[in-house]
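Priority: medium. Attachment 1 of 2:
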C-alpha cells in the first residue's frame, strides 16, 4: 500500500503501518486527553495496545488463509483498523467462512483472556465497567470484545459480510451470493444510518456510510470478476507490442508513449524479458532527469507475469495484490503480449452482460 512503512514481520508476514497511523499516534500524544480521554505517553501506549489487538485479529485471518494455500502479502495498520492483503480469494465457500470467522474468534478469545487476567489481579471487569473509565486491562478487554462484535456485522467489508456470503455461497453461485450479501449489508447500513440520526450518534452514522460504500465496492469487484468470467489472458492482451532495449533512453520511451496507444513497455535484452518501464517512470524521469536517462536505470525488475492461458481474473488479482498496472504475458519465456488495467477495463466494457466466448474460440 502506498505511504506505508514496514516495521517488521510476524510469522513471515510483513507488517506495515500506514503513515496516517503515525500521525494518529502524534495526535493522541498531544491532544489525546480531549479526544479519547487519555493523552501523552499513556495515550500512545493505549493506542499501540489497541493496534496490537488488531494485529492479533488480522494475523489469525492470515494463518488460516495460509493453511488453505492462500498467500498473505502483508498486514497494514491504518487508523481505522487493519487489512491483511491476500493474493487470492478462497476457492470454496467453507474456506471463506472459516478464514473470515478466525478474526472475530481470535478477538473474542483475547477479550476472554484479558478479562480473566483482570479478574485475577482483582480489578474484575463487569459489563458496566466496559468504558474508557476502567483500568487499562478493562479497556483492552472492551476493545477486543467490540472488535469481535463489530466485525461480525453481516455486511461488507466486515468479516460478518464474508461469513454471510460464504453461507449463501454453499447454495448459490458466488455472484448471486455476493449480490444477496451486499443487499443485506446495505439494508443494515440504512437502518444504522437512521438509527444514528434518531439517537444523535455520529459514530453510528459514520459506520453506516462506511458499510454502505464497502458493500458497493465488493459488488463492483464481483461484477468485474463475472464479466471476465472464464476468459484467458490472450483474449485481452496487447499482442502487437512495442518493446524497448535497456540502452535506449527515456526520450525514446517518451516518443513511443506519445505516438501510440501503449503506455507501459517491456524491456528486452535480445529476446529475453528483463524489465518493465511504466508510464509513471517515463513521466517522472523525463521531468526530473531529462530525456537522456537510460531505460536500464528506470525499469522495474520485479513484476508479475502470466501466460496466455492464465484466467483474466487471476491476472487482475495479481495486479491488485502487487500494485503493478501491467503484466507481461509469456509463453515458455518468450514475450507474447501485455495486459494493463486499461485492457481489462476494455474487456469488461465489451463483455459485461454479454458472453464473449467467441473470442476464446477464435484464438484456440
Ligand atoms: Zn477481520
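Attachment 2 of 2:
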Amino acid at each position: 500500500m502506498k505511504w506505508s512503512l514496514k516495521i517488521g514481520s510476524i510469522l513471515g508476514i510483513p507488517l506495515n503501518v500506514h503513515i496516517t497511523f503515525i500521525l494518529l499516534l502524534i495526535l493522541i500524544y498531544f491532544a489525546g486527553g480531549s479526544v479519547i480521554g487519555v493523552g501523552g505517553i499513556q495515550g500512545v501506549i493505549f493506542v499501540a495496545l489497541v493496534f496490537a489487538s488488531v494485529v492479533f485479529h488480522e494475523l489469525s485471518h492470515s494463518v488460516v488463509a495460509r493453511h488453505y494455500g492462500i498467500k498473505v502479502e502483508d498486514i497494514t495498520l491504518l487508523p481505522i483498523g487493519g487489512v491483511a492483503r491476500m493474493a487470492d480469494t478462497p476457492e470454496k465457500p467453507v474456506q471463506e467462512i472459516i478464514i473470515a470467522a478466525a478474526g472475530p474468534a481470535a478477538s473474542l478469545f483475547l477479550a476472554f483472556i484479558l478479562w480473566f487476567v483482570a479478574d485475577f489481579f482483582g480489578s474484575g471487569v463487569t459489563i458496566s465497567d466496559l468504558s474508557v473509565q476502567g483500568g487499562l486491562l478493562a479497556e483492552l478487554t472492551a476493545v477486543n470484545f467490540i472488535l469481535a462484535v463489530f466485525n461480525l456485522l453481516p455486511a461488507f467489508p466486515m468479516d460478518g459480510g464474508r461469513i454471510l456470503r460464504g453461507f449463501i455461497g454453499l447454495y448459490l453461485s458466488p455472484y448471486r451470493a455476493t449480490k444477496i450479501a451486499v443487499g443485506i449489508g446495505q439494508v443494515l447500513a440504512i437502518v444504522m444510518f437512521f438509527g444514528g440520526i434518531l439517537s444523535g450518534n455520529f459514530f453510528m452514522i459514520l459506520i453506516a456510510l462506511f458499510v454502505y460504500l464497502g458493500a458497493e465496492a465488493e459488488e463492483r469487484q464481483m461484477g468485474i470478476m463475472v464479466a471476465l468470467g472464464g476468459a484467458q489472458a490472450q483474449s485481452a492482451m496487447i499482442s502487437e507490442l512495442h518493446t524497448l532495449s535497456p540502452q535506449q533512453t527515456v526520450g525514446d520511451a517518451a516518443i513511443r508513449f506519445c505516438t501510440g496507444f501503449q503506455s507501459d513497455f517491456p524491456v528486452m535484452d535480445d529476446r529475453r524479458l528483463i524489465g518493465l518501464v511504466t508510464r509513471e517512470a517515463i513521466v517522472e524521469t523525463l521531468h526530473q532527469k531529462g530525456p537522456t536517462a537510460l531505460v536500464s536505470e528506470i525499469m522495474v525488475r520485479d513484476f508479475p507475469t502470466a501466460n496466455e492461458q492464465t484466467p483474466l481474473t487471476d491476472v487482475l488479482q495479481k495486479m491488485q495484490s502487487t500494485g503493478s498496472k501491467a503484466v507481461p504475458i509469456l509463453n515458455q519465456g518468450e514475450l507474447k503480449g501485455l495486459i494493463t488495467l486499461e485492457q481489462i477495463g476494455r474487456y469488461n466494457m465489451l463483455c459485461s452482460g454479454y458472453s464473449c466466448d467467441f473470442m476464446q474460440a477464435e484464438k484456440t
